[in-house]
Amino acid sequence: MARPEKEAVVKELTDKFSSAKSLVITDYLGLNVAEMTELRSKLREAGVEFKVVKNTLATIAANDVEMEEMTDYFSGPTAIAFGEDDAVSPAKILVEFAKDHEVLEIKAGLLNGEIISKEKVESLAEIPSREELLAKAFASMKAPLSGLVNVLQGNIRGLVQVLNQIKEEKA
Fold this sequence. Notes:
By secondary structure, the protein is α+β, with helices and mostly antiparallel strands. It is built from 6 helices and 5 strands; from the N terminus they run αβαβαβαββαα.
């Protein structure tokens, strides 16, 4: 790779390291082309970019954004999943994929500028998605209103039953 191309890759990685809400560093050794294609497809559907990186260029980019601790994980075949919009998606998809394909190894991650261990990446994957959390929040806001409607309807039902009984007695 020529020097200008390397500089462009380092700049791109530097931008991604500083702008990503989360990222997951993986070792993909042992995955065949079909499995990598399947993984990339799943990540792309969730809006996650998966990039195979050269360790030296990733080290330079990590040093540029003052994340020297991350360079410990840049050894062997390295691929990084960048989550720009959703912080949980990269971890969730990669941990699920690693359960089915044991050769995919999760090395570490980055969440809001802080390096997290493999175990924390796995626990991050257990967090419900944004949509699930919003649905639960709306359901909890709806519950008191539904209860109030049922209570008010109960009073009306009672009144209707009393009026119905009075009507039957007079008939």
